[in-house]
């Protein structure tokens, strides 16, 4: 077979540079990517009380075939997972619970509402991650949740987040795989606030109330996600980077770095080794902003490679939880998941294969050689290794996954609506 032939030539080429390809593939197979459930239905959720997406995030496009029920979403995920090499995780939002047609408000969610998800994950050997949903709800309509001036509204969202952690712990326990529960809130202001302090003080208090009850870190880890701006919160975001960095360090929480949450020229890759000096673990939301936090499908670009390098080169794969966070409704959603996830894995592979000689050159102060090798590395035959890995893991090689997606679109997605 061509795949094997190309692979063995590639392996030889890498061996000449001191790179053990088999070893790289072994490590790659241990790195789970947490697929975000919300790519499958444009961040809609299944509460079925007619809510629209709010919170300053937006899915644009109306490609046909979006999942309308948990069963449809799971079927789409089954198809997606069949196209992605390796063992991964699913990241759920609270409003993807199964409420049996009843109105269960956010402050009343329980592990039982996620029983089908847990059973499905168990069948697939997947871990689950979790998120309270502090948007797309009447009590978040004025743009504030955990930092709201109204104590009643604050209490509602605190209760939601407390329950979310408990659901995370239940997932961790049932699956024997630690759940990461990530708190992101949309709180902020469109225009210049007079008081930036009081909302932040309230947010810190609310978080302390949420995290008061200790939960075993074997079952659930708490993460907090900062942001620079959102639609409708352009001038002020309560949970800014500095706010949550300080909070995470002071309270020993995971910090979530979302690739779309900073100035467009600012990269989260450079933040990883900075924050890991002071935090044992972090969570990534790998995304792609185009001019703004637009959450485009992750592609194999320099930004993604830079993130992958930081993880692979430093051996941070146990300390950095990798999640995806994008939502494109303008293309086939199964393809969107597949493209982004395969790219994340491919970027990690390229990074793992990068020649140790680059580091050696840098350590020797030889920056000429460093640059030369960095550039040579760009045309090393990682594609042959990637194809081999896909074949070895029993998923389609190269563009052949697209055939499966097209068939699925014809036989399943096009029948929806
Ligand atoms: C929003 C954050 C957050 C959401 C998801 C749906 O800016 O990135 O992570 O995208 O929780
Ligand atoms: Zn995010």
Summarize the helices and strands and which ones pair or pack.
Blueprint: H1 2-16, H2 21-28, E1 33-36, H3 70-81, E2 89-93, H4 115-124, E3 127-131, H5 151-175, E4 179-183, E5 188-189, H6 197-210, E6 220-224, E7 236-237, H7 241-251, E8 254-258, H8 269-275, E9 282-286, H9 302-314, E10 320-324, H10 333-353, H11 356-363, H12 367-377, H13 382-392, H14 401-411
Helix pairs in contact: 1-13, 2-10, 3-10, 5-6, 8-9, 9-10, 11-12
Bound molecules: L-rhamnitol and zinc ion.
Residues 38, 43, 57, 131, 184, 225, 227, 258, 285, 325 line the site of L-rhamnitol.
From the structure above, extract its key features.
single chain; 10 strands; 8-stranded parallel beta sheet; TIM Barrel; about 40% helix; binds L-rhamnitol; globular; about 425 residues; binds zinc ion; alpha/beta
């Amino acid at each position: 077979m061509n795949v094997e032939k190309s692979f063995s030539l590639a392996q030889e080429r890498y061996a000449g540079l001191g790179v053990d390809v088999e070893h790289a593939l072994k490590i790659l197979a241990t790195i789970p990517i947490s697929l975000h459930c919300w790519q499958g239905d444009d961040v809609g959720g299944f509460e079925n009380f007619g809510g629209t997406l709010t919170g300053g995030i937006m899915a644009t496009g109306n490609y046909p075939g979006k999942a309308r029920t948990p069963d449809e979403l799971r079927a789409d995920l089954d198809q997606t997972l069949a196209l992605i090499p390796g063992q991964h995780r699913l990241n759920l939002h609270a409003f993807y619970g199964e409420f049996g047609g009843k109105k269960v408000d956010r402050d009343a969610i329980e592990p039982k509402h996620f029983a089908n998800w847990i059973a499905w994950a168990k069948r697939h050997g997947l871990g689950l991650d979790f998120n309270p949903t502090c948007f797309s709800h009447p009590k978040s309509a004025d743009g504030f949740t955990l930092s709201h001036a109204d104590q009643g509204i604050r209490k509602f969202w605190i209760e939601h987040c407390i329950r979310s952690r408990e659901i995370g712990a239940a997932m961790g326990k049932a699956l024997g795989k630690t759940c990461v529960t990530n708190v992101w809130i949309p709180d902020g202001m469109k225009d210049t606030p007079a008081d930036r302090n009081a909302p932040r003080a309230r947010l810190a208090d609310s978080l302390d109330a949420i995290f008061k009850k200790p939960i075993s870190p074997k079952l659930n880890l708490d993460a907090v996600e900062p942001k620079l701006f959102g639609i409708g919160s352009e001038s002020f975001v309560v949970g800014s980077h500095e706010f949550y960095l300080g909070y995470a360090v002071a309270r020993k929480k995971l910090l979530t770095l979302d690739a779309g949450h900073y100035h467009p020229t600012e990269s989260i890759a450079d933040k990883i080794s900075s924050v890991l000096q002071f935090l044992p673990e972090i969570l990534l939301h790998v995304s792609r902003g185009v001019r703004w936090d637009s959450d485009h499908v992750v592609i194999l670009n320099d930004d993604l490679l830079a993130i992958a390098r930081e993880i692979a080169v430093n051996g941070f794969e146990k300390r950095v939880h990798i999640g995806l966070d994008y939502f494109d409704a303008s293309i086939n959603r199964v393809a969107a998941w597949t493209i982004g996830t395969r790219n994340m894995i491919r970027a990690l592979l390229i990074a793992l294969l990068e020649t140790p000689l680059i580091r050696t050159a840098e350590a020797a102060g030889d920056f000429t050689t460093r640059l030369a090798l960095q550039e040579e590395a760009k045309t090393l035959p990682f594609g042959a290794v990637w194809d081999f890995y896909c074949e070895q893991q029993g998923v389609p090689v190269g563009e052949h996954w697209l055939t499966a997606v097209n068939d699925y679109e014809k036989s399943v997605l096009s029948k929806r609506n």
